[in-house]
Design a protein that fits this description.
By secondary structure, this protein is of the alpha+beta class. 62% of the residues lie in helices and 14% in strands. The protein folds into two domains: 44-130; 179-382, no CATH class. It has helices spanning 2-30, 132-177, 182-201, 206-232, 243-247, 256-289, 295-322, 326-335, 339-343, 346-377; strands spanning 44-55, 59-62, 65-76, 85-93, 107-114, 121-129. A hairpin with a 6-residue loop joins strand 5 (107-114) and strand 6. It is globular.
Amino acid sequence: MMISRFLGRDRRRDLVFVLAVALASAGLLLSPTGFGSPYPAGSSERAKARVLVVDDANLKAIGPVRQGEQQLVVRVLSGRFSGRTFDTHNAMIGKLEMDKYFSVGDTAFVVLDLSADRTDVAYANVIDHYRLDATLLLFGLFALCLVAFAGWTGLKSLLSFVFAGAVLVKFLMPAMLRGWAPVPTAFAVVVALTAVTVFLVGGFTRKGLAAFAGSIGGVALTSVLAFVFTRLFKIHGAVRPFTENLLYSGFGDLDLAGLFMAGIFLASSGAVLDLAMDIAAAMAEVAEAHPGIRRGALIRSGFSVGRAVVGTQTTTLLLAYTGGFTALVMTFIAQGVPWENVINMVFVSAELVHTLVGSFGLVLVAPVTALAGGFILTRPRAR
């Protein structure tokens, strides 16, 4: 009775929702994707290793890149073969984006191919530098700062972050690999992630409902624009790194154009939600300060807030997208390629569609949220 009275109805509902999302996140993270390794189970083990010896005699430097192979001696630091040393090599093909270079003292990620009876190691494959420890450290610092700054709300934000990552990796991507239509599947995922983020962080309030309605309206309009302009620009979809690799990996029936469209509104949905929440929160403050405000006046207030924040948000999205193809644009500038040539290249056009359609969605979400907030936040007596 005392706990129930302390939590109250809203706090209890909030806690139940947090627990439900936490359980859903754990279930997703622990569930298999359905796509396993083509190699027999138990035929290899993954481990952390220290590079003890490096021999670069077979490496040839060509400008800033290297070709050939390094001869290495590594000591395994984890797993049942910890402490064992193995001779191996690291092949380099002369592509900086693919190659890795090892020095003495580096920590490597290795895959140990086991013998036929699986009691010994047949060969140690050096895959790349070991980054799991640094990844966990970075995520831990992020989580610590978020919770330390925002407390309970920060913890819910962290849970929302984990849930979104789990849904994308364990549900959305495997579903599209199985042949699910990318655009409706991604849209359904965005609706679910938006609902969880809004109601988990903001609570079950009129403000949250207005932000949710505005976000979904903005994403829906963005998806329509993505479909129209992807067709208009004749973008086939194979414009992202590794996209074409999927076709040669047994997934020749994938809708690459649909994947491209889905990526546009999926990438902009976070910024759309942020803008919708800003407008809904401002309108909620106005409605609370002026309980008798009429719907039309509240909608005009929402439009005013939207006009103030849309400019900075679209610039933010432009800068975020531009960071992904800075080297591409610099290459064209360095080679003096005419801009008419540049703009008509399919992968440049794809980036333009991605940036402009995503920014267009931000512009559209402002009036949609203002209208939704006007209907949701005004009280019955003021209508």
